[in-house]
Amino acid sequence: MRSDARRNRERVLASAVGLILETGREPARDAIAEAAGVGIGTLYRHFPDRQSLLHAVARHVLEGAISAGESIVDSDVGGEEAVRCYLHSAIDHGIGVVNMIHPLLDDPDWPDLQVRAEKLMRTLLERVRRDGQLRSDLAAEDIVFASVRFGRPLAIGLPEARDREVAHRQLDSYVDGLRAPRSTAEGGSGGG
Amino acid sequence: MRSDARRNRERVLASAVGLILETGREPARDAIAEAAGVGIGTLYRHFPDRQSLLHAVARHVLEGAISAGESIVDSDVGGEEAVRCYLHSAIDHGIGVVNMIHPLLDDPDWPDLQVRAEKLMRTLLERVRRDGQLRSDLAAEDIVFASVRFGRPLAIGLPEARDREVAHRQLDSYVDGLRAPRSTAEGGSGGG
Amino acid sequence: MRSDARRNRERVLASAVGLILETGREPARDAIAEAAGVGIGTLYRHFPDRQSLLHAVARHVLEGAISAGESIVDSDVGGEEAVRCYLHSAIDHGIGVVNMIHPLLDDPDWPDLQVRAEKLMRTLLERVRRDGQLRSDLAAEDIVFASVRFGRPLAIGLPEARDREVAHRQLDSYVDGLRAPRSTAEGGSGGG
Amino acid sequence: MRSDARRNRERVLASAVGLILETGREPARDAIAEAAGVGIGTLYRHFPDRQSLLHAVARHVLEGAISAGESIVDSDVGGEEAVRCYLHSAIDHGIGVVNMIHPLLDDPDWPDLQVRAEKLMRTLLERVRRDGQLRSDLAAEDIVFASVRFGRPLAIGLPEARDREVAHRQLDSYVDGLRAPRSTAEGGSGGG
DNA sequence: TATGAATGAGGGTTCATTCAT
DNA sequence: TATGAATGAACCCTCATTCAT
Fold first, then answer.
1. How high does pLDDT run on average in chain A?
2. Which pLDDT score, from 0 to 100, does residue C33 have?
3. Is the peptide bond before D103 cis (omega within 30 degrees of 0)?
4. Nucleotide nearest to D29 in CA–C1' terms
5. Which single residue has its CA nearest the C1' atom of nucleotide E10?
6. Residue D166 lies in domain
7. Same domain, D88 and D123
8. How far apart are the first and last CA of chain C?
9. How many CB atoms lie within 10 A of CB A77?
């Protein structure tokens, strides 16, 4: 029954991510279990308390996003494109859920992912500096915080597809705005 | 006793906005009442059901944001600056709360504010087109959705001041990215 | 509504004691609330968590038993009769419930009752020694542990009235056995 | 594989008795299985429903207690000593568990043990009457109910060894109290 | 046969809302 | 009108029992 258990675990995680992103809220346990097609007891066997489910959900999406990011940097695209692709990919992997999980991951306890994430960010920033397309003062948090900002549903009643479209469009403008500033002759920085 | 009632109403609204932005969630009714220093019964006297409190909260922040926007366009600044200032101002007025209110304001029922909001957006877009600094295809939703996107706390455990700082910084990049595209000689748009 | 609240509190306590003694178990919260004729929410308003209800129940019966004991010693009966009456009275006051409450009163937090209980025991033991009817080495725990031992229903299916009768009968034999030993000429084997 | 099965059955029974006496409660099935070192499925194979496990546990301790009692009467000690020894022995055999099993053994279904128990009680009472040390109106229930009363842990947080010591001490006083009453000249009022 | 995963009924607790004072 | 007690639906979680391996 190991394989069944594995499949159930996967289904619960997928359902949890889906429901969080659909509803913009942390869903009721019963709803997750029902969406996964398992009993509530099964959910609790795999994730014995609130924290462990939320941790697993967060790991799940982070792992997906980081893996995608690693592929992107492996393909040796330019700095701007790498950052842009990573962010689009991360929100498609559901990275916005980490923004909707309370209390937030107090005890992350995932040194492996942290190491991979830090390496990924370092690589992205090196690429950015090498290629000179984006601001040279770009920092890791400009990427990380953007992923959680744009990955989260607006929750103002847009249908999911529309919400996703808006997110990607806004994200593109954001990344456009990270470009190295034009010479002043070309026109003004604006600023806050 | 009318003035007492008015004050209680104001306090409840202010507490609701404050708690929503502090916690990143729709707070419990008791918590709102307690933060306002009134009894739960008083809260329900002023806002007899869920919708009416949420509506009032939304009106409260929208009114502030729109009024501020009207002042901005009155001062006849350039299109880019007007959009940028409006957005910074809107998030400071707490416009992000409309993103955290569930279910979203199904029945807006505020024709006055809609009229003012539409007029404000029209004016901003005209200004943008007149001045030519931002994309000419800029639409009202590029502004409206940005205000709710950036107005909402990230809810990843940042202290409130830090969260606000991040929001303004991200917003600036977003507005930078709304500028009219450079000539291709200067280097590509990227795209998503 | 203070008086209503008070009455509800009393009713919940009485129902809890009654159900514990009837069923020999810690009853479900709904059952207590229903027996008290209040909603489950009311029960939780008065006793916000498991401990606080159990504490209150224990206090309730201890207070009754101690008060009765104080009256008994005030009436200046002989040592043996005082001990015997106290024990019969304590089990009628439901002192057996303290034996059925888990986890037991980890944090008693009732210095007032402890002081009264200790004084009562001291008085009883002085009376016993003064009158010479019971063993001179009688200790407080011989009384205290007896009250909880005999106060608890046997839980072997006896009807409540029968159970109570058995308890009183067994208790009488126990107290008889606490008498000062007969001279060896008269017999008596002692030890187990 | 028969011997394995037998050993598992024994282990489950022993664990059940041990846990009941340690905790003063009917333990969770998983806890019994774990303490026995078997899977929950194995427990249910041997004891397919609640009743059958509880029956088996009860039989287990009753059989031990009755056998011990039979040895005691075989050794032809006096009536008082026989009763006293039987009771001490019964509580050491764990007879108190029958007091903690709910719902109590509605359908005893153990005619063999009943026959042996009745014969044992008859013999004890005959011995008592023959020797004249204990009350001549002593009844079987004075013995049976005492065994379950004193065999049960007090459950007020005493360590197990201490609890057992208290039980034996209280039992001794109880048996002392079953002695034939003194002549009135010597004192003693009896009744409560 | 032994195992442990799956199930879901039921008990525990919270909280939005109503209502008596 | 202000208050906070009362209510019960809904959510959280445990655990007795079943079932697939």
1. 88
2. 96
3. yes
4. F16
5. C28
6. 51-180
7. yes
8. 59
9. 15
